[in-house]
Structure formats: C-alpha cells, structure tokens
Write a structure and sequence with these properties.
Membrane topology (chain A): Multi-pass membrane protein
Subunit structure (chain A): Component of the ER membrane protein complex (EMC).
Distance between the termini of chain A: 141 Å
Distance between the termini of chain B: 72 Å
Largest sheet of chain B: 6 strands, antiparallel
Strand content of chain A: under 5%
Largest interface: A-B, 23 and 54 residues
Largest sheet of chain A: none
Subcellular location (chain A): Endoplasmic reticulum membrane
Order of helices and strands of chain A: HHHHHHEE
Radius of gyration of chain A: 38 Å
Oligomer: heterodimer
Structural class of chain A: mainly alpha
InterPro entries (chain A): TMEM85/Emc4
Family (chain A): Belongs to the EMC4 family.
Chain lengths: ~190, ~1000
C-alpha cells in the first residue's frame, strides 16, 4: 500500500514542478464538506487533508443541563429588572436637565415617558420572552412595576416642569362666556 | 441686581411692543383726508396767472388755501376751536387778514404768519381795507367804541380814536373810498343815522353829522355805499330806498325813492338786502348794486347822476355775486332752471324736486379807468351757463365768482358754489365741475362700520341656504344637487377669473394698477378688512366711505335737520342675512322740540329703505337696540318716549310676541344729567314700563358728565387672569355695568373732585364708587371688559393723570354658565392704580377684535394730532411696586408712576389728525387686526395690530425662496428615489 502511494507522491511532485496548472488525474475526497468548496480549501490549506469523517462544524448538543436553566432564570430576571435599573439613571438625568422648558429637557422628558409606554405596549412580547422562566409571573409583575414607575417619574417630571394641566388656569380657555340673562340698554336722555 | 433685571425685562418688553410702520408701508393701509369746514369767506387770488389760489376762512376757525385746479389744500392754518378762535372777517389784498381779538396777516403763498396784532378789547364790528392814492396801505377796524387804523405792512397801529356817544349810537359800518377820509356809520335805532368822518392821516374827526332816519334799525345789510360815496338804505316798511351822499358838506336829508317808482315790488314780510362791490379799496364802489326783494328775487340797479334805474330784474334768482378782474366786473346770478312755482314754499319744494339744475347768468360790466361817470357800468355781455349740482345736495347757499381775463381780452370766470350741505363745488365756464369738496365731513358726529356684502357668486352659494332653498326644496333632491353643482362651477369660474386678473395685474408696474372702487364692485375681501364707513355729519349729510381707499361712495343729504340735532346711528341688520339688504337706522332728535324722526337706509348703497319707520308723536328720550330679531332678521329697536312708553320698530306680530315673552328680561336706564338722576325701568308685557330703581346724584354738588356701558359687539375670550402661581383670578364681566362719571360743581382747585360710580344697570346697585379729590375734568373714559380707564386733570399737582379700575370676582366663579345681575350676592374685588400722563388728551377708545383674544390697546387722541396706541398692560392695577418671581411670571411691569409716550406708538406717524374728536374701532375678519378711524377736522383710517400680526405672514415674506426650496426638495426626492430604485435593481443583478 505504501509503495504505490509513494510513487504517486513522486509523480505528483514531478508534475507540479513541470506544468503547475495541470490538474490531477484523480483525487479522493473524504471530508464531509461539499465538493464545491474543495478548490478554496485546497488553496487556503494547501494539501492538508482532514481525516475521514471529520467535520469542522460542531455538532449541537441537544441535551438540557441544569446550569443552563439557571442561566435562563438569570437572563429573565435581567429583562424584568431592566426598567427598575434605569430609574436611578433617569433621576439623575431629571436632576441635571432642570425645570426650564427648552428643547433638551423636553426631549429628555419625551424619551423618559416614551420608553415605558413603548415597553408597556409590547408587554405581551416580553411575556413570551419570559415564558421559559419558572418565575414568569413574578418577573412579569416586576417588569410592569418598573415600567409604571418609569412613567410615573416622567409624569412627575412633567408636573414639575408645569406641563400637566393640573391648575384651574390650564382650563381657563375652555370656559365659555356666561350667558346673559337680562337685556339692558339706555343712556343719557337725548 | 434685581433692579437691573427688572429694567432689562422692562426694556425688552417695550422693544417687543413697538410696532411703528416701515417707510414703505406709509399709506399702504392708512389714509388721511383733510377738511376745512363750512366756508364763511372766500377770495380768489388772481394777481399772477401762474399761482392761482383760493383763500378760505371757515366756521372751524381755519384759514386755508386751496388749489383751484384740483381742490387740494395748499396750506391750512388751524386756530383755536370754539369762540376764542372765531374768524370775524377775512380781508384780502395779497395778504389775508384773519380777525378776532387778534389781527393777523398771512402770507398767501405759503401760509406763513406775517404779523399778528392784539386788538383793544371790545366787540368787533367791522373791518375794511383802506387805500389812498390807488394803493392799499391800511386796515381799519371798527370796534364798539373805537376805530383804529393799522398799517397793512407790519400791523402797527397808525392811530386809534374813540367814537363819540358810543353808548347810544351803534356803530356798524366803516367805509373808505380812496380819498383821505374814513367814514364811520352808526345808528341810533329808530331815531337817526350818525356819520363821522375821520382824516386818514391823523385820525382827526373832520365832520360829524346826524341824519334823521326813524325807520332804520340796523345798517348791516340794510345800507350800503354805492358809486361816489352815496349811502343807499332799503326800508321794508315804507317800501322805498333812501339815498344820502356821504361826503356832501351841506346837511341834506335822506332822499326817498319809493320802490314803486322803479316798478319794483317787495315780497311780503321780506327784509330787503343790498349787495354792492368795491373791487379796489382805494377806489369807490361800483355804481351798480343788487337789491334783494325776496328769497328768489334780485334786481340789479344802477345809480347814475343821483338817479336810480333798474338794469335788470332777476326772478327767480337765488344767489348773486360780483367779481372783478382788471377793470372788468362781472355780476353772477344763480337761478334755478324750470322754475314755475312762485310761492315761497313752492320754491323750496320745486327746488328739491327738480334735479337741482341751476343756470348761472353773468353780466359783465366794463369800466374804463377814466369812466367814473354816470354811464360807466354798461351791460356788455350776457352769458348763461347751465350747471348741474348734485340733486341730493340741498340748495346753493353761497356763490363766489372768480373772473379772469382771457387772452383775447374777454372775461372768463369760474364759480365756487357752496350748498346747504357744506359741499363746495368749483365749476368752469361750460358748466363742467372741476372738483367738489365735502366739507360736511369736517364735522362727523357719529359713525359705524358695516361689513361689505358678499360677491354675487358667494351670495349665490349662500342663497342656497337662504330663502330660495325653501322654494327649491319642492323640486326635490336632484334640483338641489344641480344647483349646488352649478354654483360651485360659478365659484370656480370666478376664482379662475380672479387668478387671471392677478396674473395680468402683476405684469404691470404697481403705479398703473388702479383699484377702482365703485359701488357695483364692492365686495367683502377675504379677511373682511375692507368695510363701509357710514358717517353722520352735523349738517345732516350721511356719507358712505370705502374704508380701504377713503373714497366717498354714496352721500345722502337729509333736509330739515336742525343744526343742533342729536344723532344716534344703529345697525339693525348686518350684511350677514343675504337676501335681506343690510339696514341702518338713524335717530334724529331735534333738541328744541324734542321730536325725533327715524331715517332707515341701506348702509351699502345709501338708499332710503322701503320700510316705513313708525311716526313718533311724542319726544323720544332714548333708544335701545335689542338682540331680538324679527323674521326678516332685523334687530328690534325700542324707542322710549317721555311718558316712558315704548315703541317697537319693526313692530310686526312676531316681534310683539317675542317682546311679550322677553319683556321681564328687558331693562333700560335713563340718565338725566340736569337733575342728576339715574333711573332704571323694566318693560311690561303691554310695552309700558315700570320704574324699578333710582339713584340721585345731587346736582348741587356734582354733575353727571358721562355714562358709559360696554359695547354690545365686544367679546371677551378669557374669563380670568392667570396668576403667577397658576391659579386664576376671574374677571367680573358684568354686561350690565355702567360707569358714571361726575364732576364737582365747585371748581376751586382745593375742593374740586371727580367721582366714578360703577352701577349695575339692571338693579341699580352701586358696585363701586371712587372719588378723586383735587381733580377736574374734562374726563375721558373707556369702559370695556372688566376695566374702566379714565383720564382727568389733577389740579393739585397740575398734571394729567390716568386712573384704571379693574374688577375681579376672585379665585372662584359664582356662576359660570349664566350671568344675572339679579343673582350676584358678592361684590367684586376692585383694584385701582393711577399714572401720570405727560400730555392732555382729546379722546380715547379701546381696540376691538373679532374674538377678543388679542391683547387690548388704548387709542389716545392727543391735542397735537397724534394718535397713541397705548398698551393696556401699562394700565394694569396689578403692576407691583417690587418685581417678584410671581409677577415676573405674570409678565407684570413693575409700577412706575410716569406713563411713557413713545413716538413709535403713534399709529399715524406724521399724519396728524387735527382736532380729533372721536375714534371708532371695529373688528376685522382677522383676529390680530383692528380697524381704526379717527375723526375730527380730518379723517384718518388705519389698521392696528395690538399683538402684532400673529395670524398673517409678514409683508416681506419670501414666497419665491420658500416655494423654490419646496419645489427643489420635492424634485430632488423624486429624482433620488428613482436613482435609488435603479441602483437597487442593478445590485440585484450582480
């Protein structure tokens, strides 16, 4: 077995030295990869041949392990606690932006108000995400509370900026002039 | 630091408030018309052909010069109003002399004052120019007890002499004829005539005569000097003329010439009037003169060789006049055409019925320099010109003729006719009207602004929903749809035509585009900025003026209006009710008889309405326009007579029924200033009234000067004011509130006071009273929304002060849905503040806008002729002494006692409105814009924007840039979209 292979080796070497572009007469492909990529592999890896039955892609491990479950749980808690974690940051931004009404504080407030609202709107999607967790309901409630707190904070900010119609003066424009009960006229005797 | 900040805030506020016009906006939205008033004296300046002028003196104490070609003013000198500035006479000799206590000489070309002389006290009687040796050097002034001679060149007095027996003899005329003598004529009524001759050089009395004339009571107009110093007097009782040579030394009596000997007859009960002319003060008067024998009967007489002979009899002839040019004198006679009726009333009526055509007959005399002899004045020429005066203008009142020499040495003339309605018309020889001036507009009493009607197409669309629709409904749905489609089509057509016109006009230079406004093309514009100004003048002439251009579109002269009549103009139906024409009602009350008449007319066309107003047999005390409407959409007018009975107009069944239903809610108040009594009445179902309250302000202590309610068309958008802490202070908006201003009878500066009472007009409850001690009138008052602003003279500090009262309900509304004066248990909170104003004021009014959102300004007419637009925020009793955080939040300006006058607040820049008497404000279709008309001697119209033009694009808005950018971006997106598509496609193929 070894001799013909050696002869073959020799031939291959000699032919390469002579022509360069001449193709081999035959080749045996034993890798799992498809044949189309053969040329590429040959060029990058030279003539290194994988052993028969070798695949460079890992085969997925389909068995569930205990450690993974803990990981999922942790991940779900991350999602649920996300809004709550943002609150101190928001408080800081609130403090920094001040109560004057100008474009930046308004943008901040809008962001602050919009994010919880968006989160609350996509609540069902988040719940689906948490489905795999065993503490799904608790996490859901925490997530909800966190978002509600976030929006409450935004409302508080609006209030402190004076953007909420909470005073009687805010409704002044809607007061209709009272209807006149008596008709009166007259003047100096002409 | 805080101070600096408030200062800065204040400055910023002021800067943001100023809204003066830009240079290129001058005359764009405003116009001014200048008037002079009723002409008393007129002279034509005809010294040089080039600079012709018409010099006028008027009853408004004005000396003015007009351009006879166009009727425009060259110059105008306005004296004090009232009797103080009254012009007694105007003498003309290259210079003009206005006369009163003062003798003034004006330069006629530019209107500059040459000199002014204060005359001795005493009532003025007559003045005459005195000439010696063919040149006029002096002016003689006759007063009650003295006669004085002044140099014409500088006004210095040459001499003054007291007249003998001035307590018994009424000196009335002064005469000189170029010699060295000056004659002063006086009369002791029903006894004798006194003639005193003075030497012009030194004022010495050269002779003194008295002639028996027991029939003579007055010299003025009864006697005149004719020819070579012959005094001619007319007497109605003996039906004769009397002649007396003035200069004769021997004591001759009056020579009697009975009228019958001249084949003349005097109209019954008519006092004859003599009219003569003295073309040159240095020469004797003409020997020809007019004798008026009746209201329409004049005779031209001639005196020659001591004999009187009639030259020509003019009957009918209303007006006669003389005019001189060079050595030629013409006599002009204005007589109506087609005159057939001879009786006195008949003449008047026929004149008003026929189309007021007058024919002017002129007679020319030629007088050669040497011909002072008997047959000097011969009739040479007799021309008749037919002139057409406005048929609506009343009778001609005065006639001024301007004669001039034509190139071929014949005499041409122009005529100035003044009619009863104060119109002056200038006519050229073939009877062509050169110009007319409506001088009645110098005395506007009251005015209203009425919306213009919609265009035909707009009206067509409106008509669908109006009465026509009711008829159409019978045809069914298809017809309605068809009609709607057709009217839409018409609208589209009109719009395209409009666009085409815009395009067409845009190509022409701006000066060539003429916006001819005629009564036919009148239509409401997009924003209702153009309105019809209905003006009522004291002479009884009504005008309809286009507010955009100031053109008089219609005029209507009301005859038989007494000079002291009281007018009240009301808009009964606006243009909003399309098939029905708009309707205005003018209440005219004669002060003496107290009887009133109603004139109902269409304010757009000026035509008298077909509606017959009720006849008012009893004197009317007041009128009241109700918001009720009859089925024809005209508001109901109630007229209260002196028995406190009410007449309704219109008084259809529908109206009476509505009135019966509403009667218990209709109240009215009457203020009798003479008795100091305010009384409130309520309407009963049978249209009688019952007295429900009475407030007496004792007239011995104080007199009521003004009573003002709120304007009926005023809207208040905001029911309260926002405080710094964002709570609301609600306004006390009582629609029935009256502001009554009183002045103390005692005018001593220590004891005088001004009182302001706020009284509810329904219940008579005194809401508030304020007394300003050591203050005096005249008081100007504005009452609007929840505030009253008044201006008075502070006698103690000697300055003008503004005071503002504001009423608030507090932080809670008592009843937010209905307002009833009968159910208001709480009195409002009243705040007051006063400010020093650096000028006295003539009149005051507040701006008014459609919805009342725009902030208010006060429009203050100053005696200087400026109209100041003063922001109401300066007159705010909540202005704090020290600025706090909250007050800054509220935009309150810290209190400063001085009120500034900024020249950029003058809405009429340099277009002074002389003697402004009233300011009228009207809302336009744009909320930001308020239309303002100031009237006095002049009329000025403009627009004001109290909160700037927040709802309009700026004048200099760059449409081209914006639209080109828009279009560019649009095309760029289109192209890039296409390109992106192509690129995507290419990439997909690769």
């Amino acid at each position: 077995n070894a001799v013909p292979t050696g002869g073959m080796e020799e031939v291959a070497v000699s032919t390469r030295g002579g022509g360069g572009t001449r193709r081999m007469k035959w080749a045996l492909e034993l890798s799992l990869g498809n044949t189309r990529s053969r040329g590429d592999r040959q060029s990058s890896q030279g003539d290194t041949l994988y052993p028969i039955g070798y695949s460079d892609k890992p085969v997925p491990d389909t068995s569930v392990q205990e450690a993974d479950r803990n990981l999922v749980e942790k991940r779900c808690w991350d999602v649920a606690l996300g809004p709550l974690k943002q609150i101190p940051m928001n408080l800081f931004i609130m403090y920094m932006s001040g109560n004057t009404i100008s474009i930046f504080p308004i943008m901040m407030v809008c962001m602050m108000a919009w994010r919880p609202i968006q989160a609350l709107m996509s609540l069902s999607a988040t719940f689906k995400l948490l489905e795999s967790s065993s503490q799904q309901w608790l996490q859901g409630i925490v997530y909800l509370i966190g978002n509600l707190l976030g929006s409450a904070l935004a409302i508080y900010k609006c209030q402190s900026m004076g953007l909420l119609p909470t005073h009687s003066s805010d409704w002044l424009a809607f007061i209709e002039p009272p209807q006149r009960m008596e008709i009166m006229g007259g003047g100096m005797v002409l | 630091m805080a101070n600096l900040r408030t200062c800065l805030a204040f400055l910023f506020l002021c800067c943001s408030l100023c809204d003066a016009v830009y240079e290129d906006q001058v005359g764009k939205f405003d116009w001014r018309q200048q008037y002079v008033g009723k002409v008393l004296f007129a002279h034509f300046e005809s010294h040089s052909q080039a600079s012709k002028k018409l010099i006028l003196a008027t009853d408004k104490n004005i000396v003015a010069s007009l351009n006879p070609r166009t009727g425009d003013l060259f110059w105008r000198q306005v004296d004090k109003a009232g009797p103080e500035g009254h012009i007694d006479t105007l003498l003309f000799h290259g210079q003009v002399t206005g006369n009163g206590r003062l003798l003034r000489s004006w330069e006629s070309s530019v209107g500059a004052l040459n000199w002014e002389m204060l005359l001795d006290p005493g009532s003025f009687l007559a003045a005459v120019l005195v000439g010696t040796q063919d040149s006029v050097k002096f002016v003689a002034v006759l007063k009650k007890a003295t006669v004085s001679l002044h140099y014409l060149s500088n006004g210095h007095q040459k001499w003054t002499e007291t007249l003998p027996d001035s307590d018994t003899v009424h000196y009335q005329a002064v005469y000189s004829s170029g010699g060295s003598q000056l004659f002063v004529l006086g009369v002791v009524p029903h006894s004798h005539l006194s003639i005193i001759t003075f030497n012009i050089e030194d004022g010495e009395i050269t002779s003194q005569r008295s002639v028996d004339a027991p029939w003579l009571s007055s010299i003025q107009a009864r006697c005149t000097v004719v020819g070579q110093g012959v005094l001619i007097c007319a007497d109605a009782s003996t039906l004769s003329l009397y002649m007396l040579p003035l200069s004769s030394e021997e004591p001759v009596g009056l020579q009697q010439v009975p009228l019958q000997s001249l084949d003349l007859d005097l109209a019954l009960g008519f006092q004859p009037v003599l009219l003569t002319t003295q073309p040159n003060p240095a020469r004797p008067p003409l020997a020809q003169f007019f004798l008026q024998l009746g209201p329409d009967h004049h005779v031209l007489l001639q005196l020659s060789d001591g004999h009187l002979s009639p030259l020509r009899d003019f009957q009918p002839a209303f007006l006669v006049s003389f005019a001189t040019t060079g050595e030629k004198t013409v006599a002009a006679v204005l007589s109506p055409k087609n005159e057939t009726v001879s009786s006195k009333e008949g003449v008047k009526r026929s004149f008003s019925e026929q189309s007021n055509q007058g024919s002017l007959i002129t007679i020319l005399f030629e007088r050669k320099p040497d011909l002072y002899s008997a047959d000097s004045g011969r009739r040479l020429l007799d021309t008749t010109v037919t002139i057409h005066l406005d048929p609506n203008g009343g009778k001609p009142e005065k006639l001024y003729v301007h004669a001039f020499l034509k190139k071929d040495d014949s005499v041409g003339y122009r005529v100035l006719v003044q009619t009863e309605d104060h119109t002056i018309t200038f006519l050229q020889q073939p009877g062509r009207i050169v110009w007319t001036r409506e001088e009645a507009l110098a005395d506007v009493v009251t005015m209203e602004m009425v919306d213009l009607p919609l265009t035909g197409t707009q009206a067509e669309l409106e008509g669908e929903f109006g009465k026509k629709a009711a008829g159409l409904a019978g045809y069914g749905l298809a017809a309605m749809v068809l009609k709607r489609l057709s009217s839409q089509l018409i609208l589209l057509q009109a719009w395209i035509a409009h666009l085409w016109k815009l395009f067409y006009d845009a190509r022409k230079p701006r000066s060539q585009v003429k916006n001819e406004v005629t009564i036919e093309t009148l239509a409401r514009d997009e924003f209702n900025l153009q309105k019809m100004m209905v003006m009522v003048t004291a002479s009884g002439k009504l005008f309809g003026i286009d507010s955009k251009s100031g053109m008089v579109l219609w005029k209507h002269y009301l005859r038989n209006v007494q000079p002291n009549a009281v007018f009240k103009l009301m808009v009964q139906r606006t243009t909003a009710h399309f098939p029905h024409p708009p309707q205005c009602t003018l209440l005219i009350k004669d002060k003496e008889t107290g009887l009133a008449a109603l004139h109902v007319f269409n304010p757009i066309f000026g035509k008298k309405s077909h509606v017959t107003p009720p006849t008012l047999s009893r004197p009317v005390l007041q009128s009241l326009l109700l918001p009720l409407m009859d089925q024809d959409y005209s508001k109901v007018l109630l007229l209260i007579d002196d028995e406190y009975k009410v007449t309704a107009f219109p008084s259809t069944k529908n109206v009476l029924q509505q009135l019966q239903e509403m009667a218990s809610a209709i109240y009215f108040f009457l203020v009798d200033a003479s008795q100091g009594k305010l009384s409130g009445f309520r309407l009963r179902k049978d249209l009688s009234t019952e007295l429900i309250w009475e407030v007496v302000i004792p007239p011995e202590v104080q007199k009521i000067v003004a009573v003002k309610g709120k304007r009926a068309n005023e809207h208040v958008h905001s029911q309260g004011r926002v405080m710094g802490d964002r709570s609301v202070l609600y306004k006390y908006l009582n629609p029935n509130l009256l502001a009554v201003v009183t002045e103390s009878v005692d005018t001593h500066q220590e004891r005088s006071f001004v009182g302001v009472f706020l009284i509810d007009g329904v219940t008579g409850r005194i809401i508030h009273e304020a007394v300003q001690r050591k203050a005096r009138g005249p008081i100007h008052l504005v009452h609007s929304e929840n505030w009253v602003v008044y201006e008075y003279w502070n006698a103690k500090s000697r300055r003008n002060e503004f005071s503002v009262l504001e009423l608030f309900e507090g932080t809670e509304l008592y009843n937010s849905t209905v307002f009833s004066s009968l159910d208001r248990p709480h009195l409002p909170q009243v705040l007051q503040q006063s400010y020093i104003f650096p000028s006295s004021i003539s009149t005051m009014e507040a701006t008014l806008t459609e919805k009342g959102i725009t902030s208010r300004h006060l429009l203050v007419g100053l005696p200087s002729g400026a109209i100041l637009s003063l922001p109401k925020m300066f007159l705010d009793p909540r202005r704090p002494e020290m600025a706090t955080e909250q007050s800054r939040e509220e935009n309150l300006i810290p209190y400063a006692p001085e009120m500034p006058i900024r020249t950029e607040w003058f809405i009429n820049y340099n277009q002074s409105v002389t003697r402004v008497r009233g300011i009228y404000t009207a809302p336009s279709g744009l909320e930001s814009t308020c239309l303002v008309v100031a009237y006095g001697l002049d009329i000025f119209q403009t627009r004001v924007y109290p909160s700037k033009q927040f709802d309009v694009l700026k004048d200099d808005y760059d449409y081209v840039l914006i639209s080109s950018v828009l279009f560019g971006l649009f095309f760029a997106t289109m192209i890039s979209k296409r390109l992106a598509q192509v690129k995507l496609l290419n990439r997909a193929w690769r």
